Amino acid sequence: MISVLKQINLMLAFLLELALLVAVGYWGFTMAQTTLLKLVAGVGLALLMAIIWGCFEAPKAPWLLPEPWRFISKLVLFALGAGALFTAGQRGLGLLFALLALINLTLLVVWKQ
Questions:
Q1: Which residues contact 61 (CB under 8 A, 6 or more apart)?
Q2: Where are the bilayer-spanning segments (predicted)?
Q3: Greatest CA span in the chain, whole angstroms?
Q4: pTM score
């Protein structure tokens, strides 16, 4: 049973990573004023977050951060995603994202995933 829960937690981690990209992209689209700025901010912020994640957080990242810095970095990035949703008017989604991220990160540490 625990092995199934561990697999679910890893799947949740991946889904949270994707949701992070959507959250910062959504924030960029909603905060900019003109259509061009909305497009640049929405796509640009999501792309920037993907680059940061790919360079420092992904399992095969070229500059994988050592623990505890990796944990702290994930915590900060997920907090940015939750804050982005919250400030873009999606308070419920922001809180849900933060809660799921905290649960996921806690289980990743407890289960040494």
A1: 54, 55
A2: 12-29, 35-56, 68-86, 92-111
A3: 51
A4: 0.93
Alpha-carbon distance of 104 to 26, in angstroms, equals: 22
N-term to C-term CA, the chain: 16
- Do residues 18 and 81 make contact, with C-beta atoms less than 8 angstroms apart? no
Both tokens assigned to 81: 């995603």
Assess whether pLDDT exceeds 90 at residue 100.
yes
- Residue 74 tokens read as 């994930």
User: Which residue shows structure tokens 């949701």?
Assistant: 19
H helices of 1-113, in order, are 2-31, 35-56, 69-87, 91-110
Q: Tell me, what amino acid is at 78?
A: F
